[in-house]
Structures are given as C-alpha cells and as structure tokens.
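Researcher: I'd like a candidate sequence for this fold, 354 residues long. If you have to choose between options at a position, lean toward the conservative one.
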C-alpha cells in the first residue's frame, strides 16, 4: 500500500464510491488494459498493474479503511458496520508496526493469488468471452516449425571442391512489428494480420561441403518455418543437383569426352576448338589421326582445392562423315579409293577363312 498513490483516481472513481462501484470500475479497466489484449504494450502493462494494485487495496474493506485513514480521507458515508470500524483500527495499528511490513506489501499483493483468482472469475463471465478465449490461447503446446526443402544446382567442380551458394528462401518469421504478439497498440497487428508471423524471403549463404554427390541433403538448422508457441524453428534442407553436361564424363579428377572430327581433319591434321569444364581450348590434331584415338590435355580436369592439383581432360576423337554427300564429293572419294588400295582389315583374320 502506497499512501502517496491516489487509488481512487487510478480507478477513475471518487472517494465516496461504494464497493459495487469500485468493483465495476476495476472490471472495466482491467479488461481494457489486460495484457492478453494489449500484448507487448508496456504502457498498458503498467496501467494494468496499477489498476490491480488499486483494487487490491480499495476492494478490501480493511485495507481500504487503512488507506483512507492514511490519506486523511473523511468518509462521506458513515460506516455503520462495527466490523469495518474494528478492521479499520486494526489495520491502522498494524500500519504502525516497523516499516519492513510496508516494504513487502507491494510485492505481496498486486499480482497475488487472490488477485489472479479474481481475474479468473471476471473472465468466466459470459460477456467476457473473448478475453477468456485469449487466456486459453496463452498456454498452447510448442510446435516445431515446418521444414523446407529446396534444390540447389552446382557444377561438377563445385561438387568436388565444395562451394558457397547464396540462396533465397521463402519462410515464415516472427512479425517484425508486433514481435509475434499478434497485437500492436491495442489492436490487431496490421503487418501480420494477427498471425504473429509473416512470410519473408531470406537470403542465405550456404556452405556446400566438398565431395557431395547428386541427391545429397544438406541440413541448415533453424532456417525452416518458424516454430509456434516457443517451439523450435523448422530446418532447411538443400538437395544437391549436379548440373549434367552431356559432353563430359568424370573419372576421379579426370574429365572424359568424345569429340567428332572430319575425315580431312583426321587425314591432314588440324587445330580444333574443344570444350573444357572451364570454357574451351585449342587442341591440335596430328595428321593421320584415326577414329578412337585418345588425346590427353594435361591439367584441364577437375581442380582439387586441397592438393592444388588438377586432373586431365581425356579426349577421344571420332571421325564423322558429313551427311548428304554431293555427287562431286562422291566422285572425289571414288578417286581417293582408286589412288590408294588400302585395306584396313587385311590383318584381321576371320575364322571362316582359315
Ligand atoms: Zn504482427
């Protein structure tokens, strides 16, 4: 009890208010400033505490009498109840005891059991259905947020060495306006529409470890959807997709590919451009190259970030005859055949002919 505080003013009543008026004023204000309705509003919270404190004094005959005496208030209505008078004087004499009692009082009463008991009672009333519902909502079970799964495409080189990918995910987060309290300044939060959370894009830098294979799931804890009622957030799962290149095959650090060449390139030699995992490179084809011949391009394979070594690119050439030969081309091939009697199968022995 703090005699310097005007509990009547706090409840918006005058000192002559009777018990019924005090209770009614308290109920109205307590509902108005109840923390469940004004979540996150510190002013309301303070006000609510103040109202509770005022009522814990004025709603209690003995304490009210004591308070009135301390405040020097003359009761306009003579208190006819002997009991009340007795309580008043008892309360007064109690007040004269050492100060430690006074010290303890504010802690003991404003949110004491008697007070919350009364709060429960007023919220059980049919006309206060909504606050009652909100009170039930107060202790729901924590629910873990949903996991989010998304794909991440990386190159073969990145799969080997690991990489960092910036990814953009859409997940739910605590509402930045009401901080998840669903209400703001006494009303439903306009940002989250009272959900307490919002869907938001978030950019994340994700580290993909070395030597991942296609389909590897990488878990990023806590970056899924937001947990409810204090539950943990869901996780984010990245499913690794390794970008396929139809030209290349991979064997450890080596890159394998098959490159078509023309008959004249094969016969006369040429310098051709071939693709590599980094771009392209010039490759010399010597004259008299035959189909299926393999060429090694040193250091054009996969770079290993640990050893700083690079694999090779192994190129297999394949002679391809141009489609739709013209009469002129056919003539020239016939001429070539006449000039050179070449049988590439002469050393191949068929069992039949033995
Ligand atoms: Zn909000």
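Model: Candidate sequence:
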């Amino acid at each position: 009890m703090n005699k310097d505080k005007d509990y009547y003013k706090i409840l918006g009543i005058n000192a002559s208010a009777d018990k019924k008026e005090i209770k009614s004023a308290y109920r109205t204000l307590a509902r108005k400033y109840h923390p469940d309705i004004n979540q996150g509003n510190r002013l309301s919270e303070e006000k609510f505490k103040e109202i509770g404190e005022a009522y814990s004094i004025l709603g209690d005959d003995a304490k009210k009498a004591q308070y009135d005496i301390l405040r020097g208030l003359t009761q306009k209505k003579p208190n006819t109840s002997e009991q009340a008078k007795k309580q008043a004087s008892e309360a007064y004499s109690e007040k004269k005891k050492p100060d430690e009692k006074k010290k303890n009082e504010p802690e003991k009463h404003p949110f004491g059991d008697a007070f919350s008991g009364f709060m429960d009672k007023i919220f059980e009333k049919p006309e206060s259905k909504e606050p009652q519902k909100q009170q039930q909502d107060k202790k729901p079970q924590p629910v873990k947020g949903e996991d989010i799964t998304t794909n991440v495409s990386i190159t073969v080189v990145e799969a080997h060495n690991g990489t960092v990918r910036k990814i953009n995910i859409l997940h739910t987060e605590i509402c930045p306006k009401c901080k998840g309290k669903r209400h703001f300044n006494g009303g439903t939060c306009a940002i989250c529409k009272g959900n307490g959370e919002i869907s938001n894009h978030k950019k994340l830098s994700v580290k993909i470890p070395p030597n991942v294979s296609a389909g590897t799931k990488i878990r990023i804890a806590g970056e899924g959807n937001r947990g409810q009622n204090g539950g943990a957030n869901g996780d984010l799962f990245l499913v690794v997709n390794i970008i396929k290149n139809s030209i290349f095959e991979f064997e450890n650090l080596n890159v394998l590919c098959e490159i078509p060449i023309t008959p004249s390139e094969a016969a006369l030699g040429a310098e051709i451009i071939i693709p590599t995992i980094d771009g392209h490179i010039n490759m010399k084809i010597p004259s008299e190259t035959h189909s299926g011949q393999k060429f090694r391009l040193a250091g054009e394979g996969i770079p290993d970030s640990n050893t700083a070594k690079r694999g090779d690119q192994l190129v297999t050439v394949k002679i391809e005859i141009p489609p739709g030969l013209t009469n002129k081309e056919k003539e020239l091939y016939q001429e070539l055949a006449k000039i050179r009697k070449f049988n590439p199968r002469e050393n191949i022995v068929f069992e039949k002919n033995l």
